[in-house]
Design goal:
- The protein is mainly β.
- The chain has two domains: 6-239, Glucose Permease (Domain IIA); 247-369, Immunoglobulin-like (Sandwich).
- Helices cover 13% and strands 33% of the residues.
- Strands 1, 2, 3, 4, 5, 6, 7, 8, 9, 10 and 13 form an eleven-stranded antiparallel β-sheet that branches. Strands 16, 17, 18, 19, 21 and 22 form a six-stranded antiparallel β-sheet that branches.
- The protein is elongated.
Amino acid sequence: MQEKTGLYHSISNILCMSRIRLLTVMLLLAPAAVTAASYDLENLGAPRFVNTNYIDVSKIFLLSKFRSSAGHDYSDNFESCRSMKHYFMVPDTSTVIVAPVSGTVTALLNDFIGTQVQITADAQPAFTLILFHVQLQSPLTQGQRVAEGQVLGVHAGQENFSDIAVRVDTPQGLRLVSYFETLTDAAFAVFKARGISSPAQLIISKAQRDAAPYQCTGQPLTVLKFANLKSPPDLDYISLTGAAPPTGMPLVTGPLQQRTLNLLVSPPPQVRNLIGSIFVAVVLPASQGGHAFLRTQSGSWVPASDCTTAPAAWQGMLLTGIGFDVFSQAVDLSAYRGTVFYTGFGIGSTWQLACNNMLQSQSFTTAYTVQ
């Protein structure tokens, strides 16, 4: 595997641990024997019939787009060299996985980590929802009936992300569609409440991907990895608002006239070991001009108004307990009452991308107020 950097390096290393087995590829590409139904996707479009999300969305802060470069090639009979499913990041091992539809378990596959569960929907028998990396609560068998919302288990392991695909048996052959195209308004509402206005935000169109295609490397019927990534792969992901902010612990010594201040910043567990940036900002009170400044990696403070001029205080793999000297020498802050220090984090291979991610996901918090 060639060397990669940034967010893609971190995410790709985890995703590519999940090996698509030969049986999985055969089930996807060969004519389907598990459903007698067929659906005219070309003329009718994807039906919106899924009322229940398969995963606890409160545990998720980042989604990959349909036809992205996330992980590895996962494509159908009509397209190639693109990821035609969605990764949900970053669930932990307590994240509950449920059946998104009532239907029949048509396949159970060893998924390297956990079990791949394929459910053919009662409401749309030509549609099979494929849930990856499930730690089953109790054994399932092929042909078993499951009810919508039935708990299947939890996400299997933090070495990988949760992902879902939707396969459709059409008169022309097997196709893949975005999970979000099948959600009803009620099911999509939780994503809308967290900043995603429509499913279209989560889908790269076939025309867009065909105009900027990837190349894939690897042997046939194995995991094909993406090459020639020309645009920042961070753009293949979209953040949900309402992410857990970091913990910013102020370490304060001395009276207001002789104060030292250090901040100990810890991003939430779900994002640790991903590539990103930590930001430390200060906003002065109106009596001092009300200006905003950000701490640089060298420890200086610079004015900043947007993400193009907002330097990171720290950049790299997000770890717990990263310390920053704000005032290592005693400073008289008596004229600066009301000054507020903030800390935040963002995911991205550059601090500009991480800054935009932080603002979009609202992953920042007040760390200390001078009083």
